């Protein structure tokens, strides 16, 4: 066999990652058997989608729509959905029929400006342009799949309401927007499978360990099967939709440690354990370029569970709660921030103004900075009582107080302080309702959904900041193609979409832009992958002197096959 070749420069630059990588390379000097095992792509090989969240489901459907003869969708979990299934505030879009019906004036320019401003203009403007221009089509795509997105929230950082979600029922079981979207797209995939069982194949509990290349093309993946076997799956194109690395806390290979610092490991996360950055790691090992990796979003409001306040995996307190009128109070009983400000701003204010709460108040916050999320009956009704009851009754995050006096007693503050806070807030509610000019309070808040009565019941949950989203990832272009750092051009046969990709959000993501990115760029990635599958890679030239049972062996001696495997 030929001498071992050095791995790509990207591996040598990754001391934390290199320990978990095994690089297997072969040249034309390999035996015939070895060549056969590393075969070139065949005409019937599929598009491979790695990751079964919203971006992956969107890519799968779009690849089929644009002519992919077969798609293999792979996910490491027992079911599809990923973090997308947990999304609770909605999906952004502008110039939609729902906005028009509700009298909301919006535009692509306004949406673009909000997104760029939230990202401190570190965003890739070209990617943002595609995001906002395709946003209305993304809503149409979901509605055609059976998702009712007939209500709109105002979320933090938006100049107008544009975060579409599933209307909350007045009674009965609520349908969270993320779960509803995932369920609808799964049904659409199942319908395709029923018509043609070979069109889409789904592999669950199957972890992708690395990418396979042939000549200049990415042509497959190495996987670990549910039974523990290592296998190679060949394909004409690979779509990475593996999500981010918000739960990547392994000491040796943690992307959080490498790019954001070890201090981030002390924070809780709202992500599932599967958010470990696999897609970034395996593509980076092949020389993929990454962007914005130090930009990690810490969401301001994750519920502190009274039953497990020290838990490092938290349940997200939907931004829609604040959009419908919830306010934030410190342990002193005062407001300290615009509840609908940018996520990074609200997080910073909580970390500065809100010390840890003691066990004597709703179980405390286990040493973490915590604020009080306060709702009244009106804000609960506007949010949707069935949805609120999930948080309050099923999860037991909220505690009900008969009035301000009862809350003040439990908190250990003068009731007059909370009463003054609410009275001041109510003044702006009235001014905003009566004024034709936008009013601002001392925290720059301009939207005041509901008034608070000091004699009415108040429902209070403790919230704390938690790692929620990683803005950085693989650098892509408008076609979702992944860039090779050293060739300064896109890989052939490799695309990415969703949180695994960077550049769209810049320094800070707007609420509702994650689901939108998954749909917009998931669809683009699926279309691009289908085109790649039709166009290449070229079939190998077979020498007549070779055995007839090895048609996949290439006659080109100068172009080795390469497998870069992430060891589980």
From TrEMBL:
Flavoprotein as UniProt keyword: yes
EC number(s) from the headed UniProt entry: 1.3.1.6
Pfam families named in the record: FAD_binding_2 (PF00890)
Name of the featured protein: fumarate reductase (NADH)
Gene source species: Pristionchus mayeri
Keyword annotations of the record: FAD, Flavoprotein, Oxidoreductase, Signal
Domain of life: Eukaryota
Compositional bias ranges of the Low complexity kind: 541-568
Signal peptide from the UniProt entry: 1-29
Enzyme class: oxidoreductase
Reactions catalysed, as given in the entry: succinate + NAD(+) = fumarate + NADH + H(+)
């Amino acid at each position: 066999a030929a001498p071992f070749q050095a791995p790509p420069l990207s591996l040598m630059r990754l001391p934390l990652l290199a320990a978990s990588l095994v690089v297997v390379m072969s040249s034309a000097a390999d035996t015939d058997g070895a060549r056969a095992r590393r075969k070139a792509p065949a005409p019937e090989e599929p598009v491979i989608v790695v990751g079964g969240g919203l971006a992956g489901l969107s890519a799968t459907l779009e690849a089929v729509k644009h002519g992919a003869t077969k798609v293999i969708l792979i996910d490491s979990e027992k079911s599809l959905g990923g973090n997308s299934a947990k999304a609770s505030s909605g999906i952004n879009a502008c110039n939609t029929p729902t906005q028009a019906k509700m009298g909301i004036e919006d535009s692509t320019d306004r949406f673009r400006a909000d997104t760029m401003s939230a990202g401190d203009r570190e965003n890739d403007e070209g990617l943002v342009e595609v995001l906002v221009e395709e946003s209305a089509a993304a809503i149409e795509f979901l509605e055609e799949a059976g998702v009712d997105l007939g209500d709109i929230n105002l979320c933090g950082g938006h100049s107008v309401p544009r975060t579409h979600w599933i209307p909350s029922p007045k009674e009965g079981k609520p349908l969270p927007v993320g779960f509803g979207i995932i369920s609808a797209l799964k049904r659409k995939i199942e319908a395709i499978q029923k018509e043609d069982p070979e069109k889409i194949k789904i592999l669950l509990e199957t972890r992708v360990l690395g990418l396979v290349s042939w000549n200049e093309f990415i042509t497959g993946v190495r996987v670990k099967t549910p039974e523990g076997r290592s296998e190679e799956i060949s394909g004409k194109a690979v779509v990475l939709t593996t999500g981010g690395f918000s739960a990547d806390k392994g000491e040796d290979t943690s992307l959080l440690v490498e790019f954001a610092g070890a201090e981030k490991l002390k924070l809780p996360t709202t992500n599932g354990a599967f958010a470990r950055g696999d897609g970034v790691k395996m593509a980076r090992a092949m020389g993929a370029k990454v962007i914005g990796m130090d930009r990690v979003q810490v969401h301001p409001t994750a519920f502190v569970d009274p039953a497990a306040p020290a838990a490092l995996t938290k349940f997200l307190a939907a931004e829609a709660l604040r959009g419908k009128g919830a306010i934030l109070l410190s342990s002193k009983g005062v407001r300290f921030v615009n509840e609908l400000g940018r996520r990074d701003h609200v997080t910073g204010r909580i970390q500065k103004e809100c010390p840890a709460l003691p066990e004597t108040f709703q179980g405390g916050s286990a040493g973490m900075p915590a604020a009080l999320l306060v709702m009244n009956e009106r804000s609960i009704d506007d949010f949707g009582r069935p949805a609120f009851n999930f948080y309050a009754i099923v999860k037991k995050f909220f505690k009900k107080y008969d009035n301000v006096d009862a809350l003040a007693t439990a908190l250990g503050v003068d009731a007059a302080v909370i009463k003054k806070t609410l009275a001041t807030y109510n003044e702006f509610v009235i001014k905003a309702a009566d004024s034709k000019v936008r009013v601002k309070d001392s925290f720059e808040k301009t939207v005041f959904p509901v008034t608070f009565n000091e004699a009415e019941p108040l429902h209070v949950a403790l919230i704390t900041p938690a790692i929620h989203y990683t803005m950085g990832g693989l650098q892509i272009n408008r076609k979702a193609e992944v860039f090779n750092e050293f060739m300064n051009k896109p890989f052939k046969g490799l695309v990415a979409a969703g949180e695994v990709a960077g550049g769209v959000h810049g320094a800070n993501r707007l609420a509702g832009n994650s689901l939108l990115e998954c749909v917009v760029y998931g669809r683009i990635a699926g279309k691009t992958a289908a085109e790649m599958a039709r166009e290449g890679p070229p079939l190998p030239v077979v020498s007549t002197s070779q055995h007839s049972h090895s048609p996949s062996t290439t006659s080109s001696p100068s172009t080795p096959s390469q497998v870069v495997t992430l060891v589980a």
